[in-house]
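tokens incoming
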């Protein structure tokens, strides 16, 4: 009671709780940490002094103050109010990701550091990365990629950074995911984050194994030795369709023998590992290696787009970044830069089957987007680009009517749908690429990665003016 009725204790305790709540909400702010440290020392000193006085049988405060019943009640109430008020704030900062404390707890539960020993790309390839992680976690034998694998290294082959998001099923059939990052400038260890949210489709075209096996046989050191730069990059976007473009394409077998095609009569498709100079992709053509070995890895392949509301099918090139209108005329999106989850692209065109490419638009998306999610041209004037926002939960469509010289964002009315509860939602927010049928443009607008309305159905839209305006027709069930 003597301690609680000490005004100095109440004041310092108030300051301590206030600064502690700030720390839990916003993290290590230098000013906050300093004040919190000083107030903690003061509290310890006051408590220590009070205990020593009590042990000696001395009163802590003048009798006139201790005997004031009103002050006793006021001090106790103040102590309780301060404790409850800031206790609630600290609790909120620790739950539902309401503050830095929640993120700190989440990192303790789901994030770990792994010693990075196999850190030379020339000697260890990328297999060394997974070997190091496997020492701490038993990775699934069959891994799939949720995002691309991007790595940078220096002239000596020392890996300076990489990031990827992979998943698979463990020996018990349970699904596991791993967000893997490393930055030499920030840490000497690999950061592995578990239990992340992802969309698991177990698509065989997104296997990790081709990346590991390809890097084993390609001559990385010799390749970058021709460029004489300080920093190099390696990127793997799983299976890619290069159309009829042979620029930079190098086919490798598992014995390290390579073939550089100069002309092809069929589309080039494979699990491509690209070696490049960051920021100089236009001046120095990346070396794009496709490993020949497994027959299904390098076969010509197309996907079938299903006209779901009629049941008809038509073949289109299997790529999000390249489209050929004919064997001679093609369009390609090239990555120019990446920053904070967004990507800059340029648009190129070829009229000779991919032998020569010309940049026709330095910024087709009019800024940054999360990632390109499709390209198509109805004719040499009318075309569309699709992009995914960084969150992956919604998309945006762009239209050109001058052959790609300029693009404008396509607008369409969000269709309101009623739930059984009576609530109204707008689930269709991820437009697909338009396609022509009987002189009318059709577009299926899906729900993105967060879609769960009615089995992830889509909305069918149609346009009679070459995609300038769109009208909602009906809901199309997912098949």
């Amino acid at each position: 009671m003597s301690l609680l009725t000490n005004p100095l204790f109440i004041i310092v305790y108030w300051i301590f709780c206030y600064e502690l709540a700030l720390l839990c909400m916003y993290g290590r702010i230098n000013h906050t940490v300093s004040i919190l440290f000083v107030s903690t020392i003061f509290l310890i000193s006051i408590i220590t002094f009070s205990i020593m006085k009590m042990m000696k049988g001395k009163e802590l405060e003048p009798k006139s103050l201790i005997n004031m019943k009103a002050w006793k009640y006021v001090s106790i109430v103040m102590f309780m109010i301060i404790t409850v008020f800031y206790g609630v704030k600290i609790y909120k900062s620790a739950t539902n990701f309401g503050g830095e404390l929640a993120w700190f707890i989440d990192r303790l539960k789901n994030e770990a550091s792994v010693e990075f020993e196999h850190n030379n790309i020339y000697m260890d390839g990328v297999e060394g990365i997974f070997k190091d992680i496997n020492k701490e976690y038993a990775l699934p034998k069959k891994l799939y990629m949720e995002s691309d694998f991007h790595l940078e290294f220096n002239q000596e082959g020392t890996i300076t950074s990489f990031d990827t998001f992979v998943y698979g099923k463990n020996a018990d059939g349970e699904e596991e995911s791993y967000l893997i990052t490393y930055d030499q400038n920030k840490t000497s260890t690999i950061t592995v984050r578990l239990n992340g949210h992802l969309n698991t489709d177990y698509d065989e075209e997104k296997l990790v194994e081709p990346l590991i096996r390809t890097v084993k046989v390609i001559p990385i050191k010799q390749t970058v030795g021709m460029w004489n730069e300080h920093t190099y990059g390696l990127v793997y976007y799983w299976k890619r369709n290069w159309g009829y473009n042979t620029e930079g394409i190098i086919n490798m077998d598992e014995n390290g023998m390579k073939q550089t095609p100069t002309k092809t009569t069929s589309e080039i498709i494979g699990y491509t590992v690209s070696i490049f100079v960051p920021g100089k992709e236009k001046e120095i053509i990346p070396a794009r290696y496709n490993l020949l070995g497994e027959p299904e890895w390098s076969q010509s392949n197309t996907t079938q787009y299903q006209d779901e509301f009629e049941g008809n099918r038509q073949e289109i090139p299997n790529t999000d970044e390249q489209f050929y209108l004919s064997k001679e005329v093609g369009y390609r999106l090239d990555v120019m830069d990446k920053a904070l989850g967004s990507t800059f692209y340029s648009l190129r065109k070829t009229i000779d089957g991919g032998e020569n490419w010309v940049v026709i638009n330095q910024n087709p998306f009019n800024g940054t987007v999360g990632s390109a999610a499709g390209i198509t041209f109805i004719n040499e004037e009318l075309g569309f680009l699709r992009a995914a926002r960084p969150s992956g939960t919604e998309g945006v469509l762009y239209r050109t009517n001058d052959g790609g010289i300029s693009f404008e964002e396509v607008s369409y009315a969000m269709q309101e749908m009623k739930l059984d509860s009576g609530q109204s939602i707008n689930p269709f927010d991820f437009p697909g690429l338009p396609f022509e049928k009987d002189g009318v443009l059709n577009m299926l607008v899906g729900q993105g990665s967060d879609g769960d309305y009615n089995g992830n159905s889509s909305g069918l839209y149609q346009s009679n003016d070459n995609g300038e305006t769109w009208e909602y027709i009906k809901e199309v069930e997912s098949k």
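note: Residues 299-318 have pLDDT under 50 and may be disordered.
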